[in-house]
């Protein structure tokens, strides 16, 4: 009995001696396990391995094969708040920069992004600051990089500033030439409209669609369908039956067929369409009567006056195609939307493609709008008869187009333009262009159009100022006494000289080029350099016209301060 007691006592002592160590080990293992769990969870959630499809709202798990090194890099970026991982899907070489299209979204104006260039030997690298970044569509972003320096490849990589520069792993990354590439695509009913460079340069004419086909790559199969219409940089093709029933993400390009019936390889393409685009097509219960589409570059300071004034005239919806602006355009649009203006910004990184952009917008707006106006931020509709007869001008533009909505034979309303000069000013007018510029040329120039998008020809052929209508559909030209567009074309020099940077229209020569110097698309008397003439502020002044100025001051100016609602700087100071 005594022996059993002694043995039991010894066992208890040994157990007490081992208990602290076992307790310590259990806490240690628990701590390690918890740390590993949270690290893996953080890494898993910060990467793009889980993607929620907007069409089904079911998580789709993609687990690519990753090396331990790349996984650790991803974890390191995640801990630094740099996510999702940067993946360059496509590269396009423009004359003055390289456009990187990312398969992830990084947002607008990310200053930490740098462009990595590789030399002749893989270990040679050069890092330069990116020009800009922006959201491109629902799934992708774009980053603009400087052109590759001499002896460096245009196959640019991207990373965050401060990260370890990695060696180039392969040399097979393609860089597409902007002169020959498919760049955009949009679904239109049971067809797809593809925008492509390098097929035809025939301005303002339709092409024979039998010479073109579209090639669809889904990742599982390659499908080809015949073109239905073609003009300029637009090719419309039949959407394959399998994509109509089960639309997924696909890349689409164009095949050219020569007169002998021989097909060339499909042009390179960065144009992608996502299944969510077709599934999100919902018929609007009631269309907006009047919408407006424009393409701009660095027009944020002038946007508010233009939108507020034309909303007062009855415009309900705005489509802004942003052509690489680096000003505060996004912030301005967000502020306008907070004030109940219905404005959407569409990133359009493709240079000198205004006609294609307008065709793209016509397709997008068709399900939302009865009428769509295509005019610039420096162009303002004005109704002289309303002013002279004391008729209310509010909603005058929407009322005008509504009169033709039930007319089945009118698909376009054309309005002549008067071009205004600097009107003696040398600085930007604080009250806006409608009040500041009051002297114009005597004779009108060209016209601007408001169109019925469902009445356009299937090729979407346009000349910026007007679209081609379907057979049997005509246009209505308004007389100057009824309506006119005040085009503040020649503003003070500090504003006007920006036109020398780049023209947005495809078939209009840039002003730096020594061609067509007598064209109406140029300013008379100016050469190819942005040098201010001595008498610039007095040019283009033949008729003093204060009609729109008087209308704006009587309807928009604050009765106490006299300020106009777009005079933000003065309002903030007060």
Describe this structure as you would to a colleague.
This protein folds into three domains: 88-176; 181-273, Immunoglobulin-like, CATH 2.60.40; 288-556, Spore Coat Polysaccharide Biosynthesis Protein SpsA, Chain A (Alpha-Beta Complex), CATH 3.90.550. 25% of the residues lie in helices and 26% in strands. It has 13 helices and 29 strands. Helix 1 packs across helix 2 and helix 5 packs parallel to helix 6 (329-338). The protein starts with a helix and ends with a helix. The model is unreliable at 1-30 and 41-80 (pLDDT under 50). This is Glycosyltransferase family 92 protein.
Give a brief outline of the structure.
The protein is an alpha+beta fold and 574 residues long.
The main β sheet shows up as: 9 strands, mixed
Number of helical elements: 13
Give the CA-CA distance, first to last residue.
Answer: 100 Å
State the domain count. Answer: 3
Helix content: 10-25%
Strand content: 25-35%
Using the coordinates above, name the CATH class of the largest domain: Alpha Beta
**What form results from the Cα inertia axes?**
globular
Low-confidence stretches: 1-30, 41-80
- Radius of gyration (CA) equals 30 Å
The CATH architecture of the largest domain would be Alpha-Beta Complex
If you consult CATH, what is the topology of the largest domain? Spore Coat Polysaccharide Biosynthesis Protein SpsA, Chain A
Give me the count of strands. Answer: 29
Mean pLDDT over the residues:
82
Structural class by SSE content: alpha+beta
């Amino acid at each position: 009995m005594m022996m059993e007691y002694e043995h039991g006592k010894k066992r208890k002592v040994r157990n007490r001696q081992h208990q602290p160590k076992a307790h310590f080990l259990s806490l240690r293992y628990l701590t390690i396990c918890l740390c590993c769990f949270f690290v893996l969870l953080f890494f898993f959630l910060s990467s793009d391995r889980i993607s929620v499809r907007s069409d089904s709202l079911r998580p789709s798990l993609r687990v690519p094969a990753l090396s331990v090194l790349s996984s650790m890099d991803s974890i390191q970026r995640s801990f630094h708040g740099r996510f999702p991982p940067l993946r360059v899907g496509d590269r396009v070489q423009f004359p003055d920069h390289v456009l990187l299209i990312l398969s992830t979204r990084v947002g607008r104006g990310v200053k930490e992004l740098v462009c990595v260039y590789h030399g002749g030997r893989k270990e040679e690298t050069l890092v330069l600051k990116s020009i800009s970044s922006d959201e491109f569509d629902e799934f992708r972003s774009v980053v603009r990089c400087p052109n590759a320096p001499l002896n460096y490849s245009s196959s640019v990589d991207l990373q965050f500033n401060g990260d370890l520069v990695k060696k180039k792993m392969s040399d097979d990354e393609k860089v597409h030439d902007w002169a020959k590439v498919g760049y955009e695509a949009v679904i239109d009913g049971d067809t797809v409209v593809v925008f492509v460079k390098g097929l035809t340069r025939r301005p303002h004419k339709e092409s024979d669609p039998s010479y073109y086909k579209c090639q669809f790559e889904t990742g599982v199969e390659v499908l080809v369908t015949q073109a239905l219409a073609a003009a300029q940089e637009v090719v419309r093709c039949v959407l394959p039956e399998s994509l109509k029933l089960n639309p997924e993400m696909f890349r689409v390009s164009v095949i050219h067929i020569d007169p002998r019936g021989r097909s060339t390889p499909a042009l390179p393409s960065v144009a992608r369409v996502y299944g969510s685009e077709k599934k999100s097509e919902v018929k609007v219960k009631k269309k907006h009567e009047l919408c407006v589409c424009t393409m701009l570059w660095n027009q944020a300071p002038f946007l508010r006056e233009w939108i507020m004034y034309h909303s007062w005239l009855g415009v309900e919806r705005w489509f802004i195609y942003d052509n690489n602006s680096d000003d505060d355009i996004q912030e301005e649009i967000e502020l306008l939307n907070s004030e109940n203006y219905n404005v959407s910004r569409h990133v359009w990184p493709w240079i000198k493609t205004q006609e294609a952009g307008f065709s793209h917008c016509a397709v997008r707006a068709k399900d939302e709008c009865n009428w769509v106006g295509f005019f610039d931020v420096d162009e303002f509709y004005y109704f002289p008869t309303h002013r002279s007869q004391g008729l209310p001008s509010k909603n005058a533009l929407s009322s005008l187009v509504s009169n033709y909505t039930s007319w089945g034979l009118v698909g376009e309303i054309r309005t002549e333009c008067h071009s205004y000069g600097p009107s003696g000013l040398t600085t930007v007018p604080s009250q806006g262009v409608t009040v500041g510029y009051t002297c114009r040329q005597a004779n009108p120039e060209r016209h601007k159009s408001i169109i019925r998008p469902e009445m356009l020809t299937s090729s979407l052929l346009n000349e910026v100022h007007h679209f081609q209508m379907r057979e049997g559909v005509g246009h209505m030209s308004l007389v100057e006494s009824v309506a006119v567009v005040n085009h503040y074309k020649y503003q003070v020099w500090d504003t006007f000289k920006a036109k020398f940077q780049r023209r947005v229209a495809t078939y209009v020569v840039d002003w730096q080029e020594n061609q067509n110097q007598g064209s109406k698309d140029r300013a008379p008397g100016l050469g190819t350099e942005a040098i201010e003439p001595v008498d610039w502020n007095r040019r283009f002044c033949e008729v003093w016209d204060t009609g729109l100025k008087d209308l704006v001051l009587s309807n928009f100016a604050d009765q106490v301060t006299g300020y106009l609602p777009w005079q933000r700087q003065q309002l903030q100071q007060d």
